[in-house]
Amino acid sequence: MIIISSRKSFNNSDVLSDIGHQIKEIDLSNDSEVRTIDSQEDLSLELSGKRVLMPVHGYNNEQDEVYDAYSVIENKANDFLGSEYDFVIGYSWPGGDKGLEWWASKKRANAVARRFRFLIENLTTNVKALDVMSHSLGARVVLKALKQSSRNRILRNYYCTAPAVDNEVLEQGEEFHSSVEKAEGIYVFHSKKDGVLAGAYRVAEFDNALGLYGPEDKQYIQNKTKNIYVANCKKRVDSHGAYKRCDAIYTYMSSSMAKKPEKFKTL
Q1: Cα separation, 254 vs 257, whole angstroms
Q2: CA torsion 23→109→247→194, rounded to 10°?
Q3: What is the spatial distance between Cα 147 and Cα 104, in angstroms, rounded to a whole number?
Q4: 36-42 long-range contacts, CB within 8 A, separation 24+
Q5: Beta bridge partners of 51
Q6: What mean pLDDT is predicted for residues 208-222?
Q7: pLDDT score, position 98
Q8: How many domains, the chain?
Q9: Chain mean pLDDT for the chain
Q10: Is there a contact between 13 and 93 (Cβ–Cβ < 8 Å)?
């Protein structure tokens, strides 16, 4: 898998690289480096005309944990979405490697968003379609990057699993309301059985996460938005990290490409 990293020395969990992105192809069976891709422009040309899914991990992940998660996602995408994507390309950022680094990791998520914005803007000049799938605090990286972009519809689909952002951020006048128009479809996956968001997030932010019960104002999402879809995963997902292995989510993604789903659905 090609991995794009904004981590210092490619794999530092706590420090943002001072040389921009590094891009390498990694053999996920043994975590070995296959090759280096010199620039984002070279990558963009290599992906020209291709349909790409890009996972963006969340908070508290060592690099080997990122590789493990992306290996699962790639395999699930091949099994359930094989005809929809030509490549799964992973994104790695310094989201920390300890459970008590929330504020530092959130700060880095805000900082890396600008780099991520330039990356996806560059890629979409050549790819046929770019879909992003974030987990947890990765939602902040993606939503802030979309907010900063001056381009509309930069992503085709944005799949937002267990988003560790406040539950009102997509609504009118809130932090990431302007991000909504930057994707053709935004899909929010949440579960009330997510213990991390029910506990640690509430303690840190004094608010409910979007990934716990979904959007705060469901009537607003239902009646005032055209491209936000919400999937309640309470019957399928019983922990913060379980989304990547949930077959029902990939089945839902596949069906939503054929036909737009209901605004609110329980998987």
Answers
A1: 5
A2: 150
A3: 21
A4: 37/2, 40/4, 40/118, 40/119, 40/122, 40/123, 41/122
A5: 129
A6: 98
A7: 79
A8: 1
A9: 96
A10: no
